[in-house]
Amino acid sequence: MTQFTAEDNKGMVKNENMIKEKSGTTSGVKQARAKAAGKNKNGGKAKAQKKVKDVKSEDPDSEIDCTMRLTVKEEPDDADYVEGKRGKKRKRPKEEEEEADEGPSRSHKSDKKLTSSYMDWDIPDAAVPGPSLLKKNKRAEEDGEATSEKKRRSVKSEEKMKKPKREPKRESKEQGENDKVKKTKEEREAARALKLKLKEEEEQQRWRWWEEERYKDGIKWRFLEHKGPFFPPEYQPLPADVHFYYNGKVMKLSPITEETALFFAQMLDHEYTIKEVFRSNFFKDWRKEMNVEERRVITDLNKCNFTELHTMHKNKVEARKNMTKEDKLVNKDANQKIVDEFGFCLLDHHKERIGNFKIEPPGLFRGRGEHPKMGMLKKRVQPEDVIINCSKGSHIPQPPAGHRWKEVRHDNTVTWLASWTENVQGSVKYIMLNANSKLKGEKDWEKYEVARQLKGRVDQIRTQYQEDLKSKQMVTRQRAVALYFIDKLALRAGNEKEEGEGADTVGCCSLRVEHITLHDALDGHACVVEFDFLGKDSIRYYNKVPVSKRAFKNLKLFLENKQPGDDLFDRLSTATLNKHLSSLMPGLTAKVFRTYNASITLQQQLKELSNMVDSAAEKLLSYNRANRAVAILCNHQRAPPKTFEQSMANLQSKIDTRKEQMAQAKLELKKAKKEAKGSKDPKLKAVLEKKQKAVMRVKEQLLRMEVQATDKEENKQIALGTSKLNYLDPRISVAWCKNMEVPLDKVYNKSQRDKFAWALDMTEKDFEF
DNA sequence: CAGGCCACTTAGAAGACGGTCA
DNA sequence: TGACCGTCTTCTAAGTGGCCTG
């Protein structure tokens, strides 16, 4: 009952009224609304959202694969304690203890040795993963007689671990250099073969964690070792010829004041810096960094002249862009070294990539939307702020020279390797593993399994909340309507937010009276609810939805005697809603509906839109359209690319050229036909064939381009990535690719394939979500 | 049971990369 | 050969939801 069809969605996109705009374009409306409302508890805040230029770290991380050394040592006393939540120690339960100790003691140090230039991984026995892998590995070591394919692979990968691993990226880079010198056919062939081989090797090295037993009792790992986070470089004071001016006069600033000034100067091109909130937040925080003298002198931001700092920054950016190839290579290598050293950890016997191993550099805070804290100084994080989490028996990461960590703990009920508290919002930041890791993958898989469970129960749940719309209890009716919205419209739960802490955004449970308008009749529909609010990231949600009479009546009731700033669901919170949901099905929360509806929509749309007889391009268009239907449902928007109009025009002109070519080719074909007719000259026949082929080729090209143009146009303001990465069960896509005979890499790029390795491996043609 | 803390997922923008075409 | 442009990767903000505490 609640699914959007492709027609619905296309309609939504096409119908101007229904287009969900970026908040920035609607600030006027929202302001007017808030003003008219008079009593908005957030006081008529402007809601414009501007795009932000970031002062970001320049280090490009690339995908790497470095070698490592495994040295299996004597059994250490790794985990006598599991440090519980909030860092409080708790004695590990008996059974865990037993499990941890279950690993067989191994002593063949030498044959486990891998080499690494940057990391010497020592894996004590406690590092040995769960029982199932243990058994598998042990068997592989002992008898090597594994028979099944899976066992074979397991043994093979064990063998592979012993060899130093090559670095695919480097390899191909070198290859690339050679190619430039002289690229013969054989060389290219060799390169391709090498690539294939590497791919195969990589596949064999992959940790097939999905074939292993899971840990119980919230245990996330048995062994964790890493090098700690990577800290951004220290501040380099300005060169002598770059000056800051106050009130027209040169002023030499102390290092920290200067650094903070530079943060501001770097952003001068940005609209942010003319916003009053941003400026005043910045100035307030900047003054806190100043020494007494500076604070005495610098009292007005408007008298500050950052021009030279700004210019210096721009020059630097330009210079970086114009670096020579050699310099770029040197840079790249340096970055690669950092990734090699800090970018990986060892988790239960396996090398895993870390997602964000770099400490966030200092800068000015940029919230999204009308964030009250924009412009505040995000301070430099010191090692003394950082908590390290790793195994007791591991090499504890060394803090930078002259520093110490805030704390080193050994909590294997969490997945983070390091954390610190950020000063602007006071929230904790974590260093965690990459999406392709076991820890993330297992959770992801679990998420989709819960959503699939919902599939079996959703009819019953829907029936119930329809019933609940009639309940005598206000709480129940509110819960039912909220659930109806969450299910039908894929709204987020809408946790309560602290006022003034962030931009004024809402989700379902936190909707306010001002966010909906009821229409008894609109556009030929009865009982239409018009939604207009800012959701996560201050993205506007605008939609007009016909709802059931009963829901409509309830909404009217909820609005009675309320003012615009009041909560629509005043008796409801996400906690009570989720409590109710988990009583209906274990693991069920509001968010599961989003996952479920997204995935089921994809599956239905794919069924509906794709045909086996279509061309590859058409199949892909269908896939993208199905993906798009989901993105629209979930309101995943993006700013239209800056180059959109231009590239669209380019594509159109290409299409026009092809059309001309097509006409020409057809003409020539006609001529060739004429000439070949009645003649037995094989030459003429060959010409005819050639012309026929030419027409076919141009026709195909034209079709491909036209399809591409359609896809592009439809995708102008819609972001497909978020749903693909977070909401769509990858097994649906894998099965579709298999059924449609579409290569998987048309749908998932390399890192997506890595992330979804579990799904790629286990999905058969007949998979049903 | 509210409120805060904590851990983890979800999100769009910006920046880096790399293939293509004139 | 280098500009252009689309794609991929990185970055980090902003959500969700569980658990603990008082």
UniProtKB/TrEMBL annotation:
Which residues does the entry assign to the active site, renumbered to this chain? 727 (o-(3'-phospho-dna)-tyrosine intermediate)
Read off the lineage from the record: Eukaryota, Metazoa, Chordata, Craniata, Vertebrata
As its record notes, the protein acts as a catalyst of: ATP-independent breakage of single-stranded DNA, followed by passage and rejoining
Region Disordered, residue ranges: 1-187
Q: Which GO terms describe its cellular component?
A: chromosome; nucleolus
BP-aspect Gene Ontology terms: chromosome segregation; DNA replication; DNA topological change
Keyword list, A-Z: Coiled coil, DNA-binding, Isomerase, Topoisomerase
Which EC class, in a word? isomerase
- Quote the protein name from its UniProt record: DNA topoisomerase I
Pfam families, per database record: Topo_C_assoc, Topoisom_I, Topoisom_I_N
Instruction: Please name the GO terms that the record assigns under molecular function.
Output: DNA binding; DNA topoisomerase type I (single strand cut, ATP-independent) activity
Please list the residue ranges annotated as the DNA topoisomerase I eukaryotic-type domain: 364-741
Q: What is its EC number?
A: 5.6.2.1
Task: State the protein's purpose.
Answer: Releases the supercoiling and torsional tension of DNA introduced during the DNA replication and transcription by transiently cleaving and rejoining one strand of the DNA duplex. Introduces a single-strand break via transesterification at the specific target site 5'-[CT]CCTTp site in duplex DNA. The scissile phosphodiester is attacked by the catalytic tyrosine of the enzyme, resulting in the formation of a DNA-(3'-phosphotyrosyl)-enzyme intermediate and the expulsion of a 5'-OH DNA strand. The free DNA strand then undergoes passage around the unbroken strand thus removing DNA supercoils.
Coiled coil: present as a keyword of the record?
yes
